[in-house]
Design a protein that fits this description.
There is one protein chain. By secondary structure, this protein is mostly helical. The chain folds into two domains: 161 residues, no CATH class; 70 residues. The protein is 64% helix and 2% strand. The chain is built from 15 helices and two strands. It has a two-stranded antiparallel ribbon with strand order 1-2. The longest helix has 20 residues. The radius of gyration is 19 Å and the shape is globular.
Length: 263
């Protein structure tokens, strides 16, 4: 896979949208994938390394195809409610390349992958709603942050791959993710966004990601769904109790002490 050798400050300098000219970003980002690639590759000092292998290109094409099919299957469900489905798509396909935890820290690769292939998908997920409301700066900023990576671990494809690594199970496969995906599509509430943020950026070290799976299951697959605040407070409690070996605690301990629901 190819990768950018430039750091995030390089991209901020050239690509961050400006409030005084929000359509300056949109003009080359939201309409034409090829134009975006040419624009980025023309930046003074851009440094790209590596090769795109044939099997990698095939996997990327398959991911894009499955995302298009997902959108066609659920045209009336808002993009944010399909995040768990996107997790399954990215993780299942990229695992076919043998990717795992080692690849997660290669932000230059994820940034190259994001910028060069997923403009349309990023705009659909993060910028389309604001753009339709003529909130052009907000649309541009959201697209930039996920496409280029204001916070590297939230890069569009990486965000889903990390979540997939934490919630996929060697024995039960995508059972938990499929259940979360179904819940997310059915509901108009629930703290799925904060679950993603915490699974992406919080260190929850436990055998086979037991902690991540247990908290996700309790908070967002039952009859009552945790709110965004409930999810956030659960992770705060977990971090406060981390020295009590909660990585090995039973589900009942998580239910009674960590994953609490507001009235």
């Amino acid at each position: 896979m190819k990768r950018y050798l430039n750091n995030i400050d390089f991209f901020k300098n050239y690509l961050m949208p400006k409030k005084e000219d929000p359509l300056g970003w949109n003009a080359f980002n939201l309409k034409d994938q090829r134009k975006l690639i040419v624009t980025v590759e023309s930046l003074p000092g851009i440094n790209i390394d590596g090769l795109l292998l044939e099997n990698e290109g095939q996997i990327i094409s398959q991911i894009k195809k499955e995302i298009a099919e997902l959108r066609a299957t659920y045209p009336n469900i808002s993009a944010d409610r399909l995040d768990m489905d996107l997790t399954i798509i990215f993780h299942r396909n990229l695992k076919r390349l043998g990717w795992g935890r080692y690849q997660i820290a290669d932000y230059g690769m994820w940034r190259w992958l994001s910028i060069n292939f997923f403009l349309e998908e990023v705009f659909w997920r993060w910028g389309e709603t604001d753009f339709a409301k003529r909130n052009y700066y907000e649309s541009a900023k959201a697209s930039y942050e996920r496409l280029v990576g204001e916070r590297s671990r939230r890069l569009f494809p990486l965000r889903y791959f990390i979540t997939g690594e934490r919630l996929h199970d060697n024995n039960f496969g995508y059972h938990l993710l499929e259940k979360l995906a179904s819940k997310s599509r059915e509901e108009k509430s629930g703290g799925f966004g904060n679950l993603f943020n915490n699974l992406t950026e919080t260190k929850l070290i436990s055998p086979n990601d037991y902690t991540s799976k247990t908290m996700s299951k309790i908070l967002l697959t039952g009859g009552k769904l945790a709110s965004n605040d409930d999810v956030q407070y659960a992770f705060v409690r977990y971090n406060a109790y981390s020295r009590r070996l909660l990585n090995y605690a039973s589900e009942s301990i998580f239910e009674k002490e960590i994953c609490l629901f507001s009235d």
